[in-house]
Structure formats: C-alpha cells, structure tokens
Amino acid sequence: MKRIFGFIFMLTTLSLLLTACGSSGDTIAGTWIVSGYDCNGEYVSTDDISELYGETSVGFNKISIIFTKSGNATLIRPDYVDSTEEIELSYTVQDTVVELYDPDEATDYELLSYDGDELRVEIANGLTVILEKSKT
C-alpha cells in the first residue's frame, strides 16, 4: 500500500513540475524588438547606432520578430527604402539556439543565439542586434 501511495505521489509531483515548466514555444511566443547592439563586444544603444554605421543604419531598429506558439514566425526587417518587409517563417527552439527557417526551402535558415531573455543575430561583420521580448 505504501508503494502505491508513493508511486501516485511521485507521478503527481512530476506532472506538476512538467506543467510549471511549459514548453519553449510558450516562452518565446510574442513580439521581440531591438533593444540595442553588440559591436565587437561593446554595447551600443539604438540611439547611437547611426554614429557608428551611418544614418541608414537607424533602419536596423525596425527589426522585429513575432513568434506564435504554433511554430510560425514573422520577421519584420527594413527594406532600406524607408519601409519594412515581412517574411513568414517557421521556427524551432533547442537549448540556446532558435532556428528560423523558410518552410518551403530547407536550405534557407538563420540561427539565433537565445538565452531566454535575449535573442542575438549577427547582421554585419562584428555587429550583432540584440532583441528582447516586448512587454506589451
């Protein structure tokens, strides 16, 4: 009887722990926006990016990614004609990496560094954009 009670207690505890953890798709779901840049190991704010890379680099601040819980994502990026373009993608999350990929073209993908609070992707040699999940 004690074994059965212990087994039931263990299963209940395990199921509560798994429910509390959630899936990584739930954690990443939402809108991620540019919070700053890493330029060769030094933090650069969104306001100061144009001082380093010229006035057109302010367009980098328009980058955002919207992740859904179902595994789809919309990448919004500047098109350098003072506008943006939207690209529909799919994604997977594995440990510290998010893979964004074109579901129609398996060889077209991008790997983003992910630590739960930030997404990082290199956009130029030595320049990495830092994205954080929007609070709204």
Give the gist of this structure.
The protein is built from three helices and nine strands. An eight-stranded antiparallel beta barrel has the order 1-3-4-5-6-7-8-9.
Give an account of the 3D structure.
With 136 residues, this protein is of the alpha+beta class. It contains 3 helices and 9 strands, in the order ααββαβββββββ. It has helices at residues 2-21, 24-28, 49-53; strands at 30-39, 42-44, 64-67, 72-78, 84-94, 97-102, 105-114, 118-124, 127-133. It has an 8-stranded antiparallel β-barrel with strand order 1-3-4-5-6-7-8-9.
What is the alpha-carbon Rg in Å?
A: 20 Å
Quaternary form = single chain
Mean pLDDT: 82
What sequence of helices (H) and strands (E) makes up the elements?
Answer: HHEEHEEEEEEE
Proportion of residues in extended strands: over 45%
Taking the sheet with the most strands, its summary is: 8 strands, antiparallel, barrel
Extract low-pLDDT stretches. Answer: 1-24
What's the total count of β strands? Answer: 9
SS-derived structural category: alpha+beta
Percent of residues in helices comes to: 10-25%
Distance between the termini: 51 Å
Give the helix tally.
3
As laid out across the biggest beta sheet, the strand order is 1-3-4-5-6-7-8-9
Q: Any idea what the shape is?
A: globular
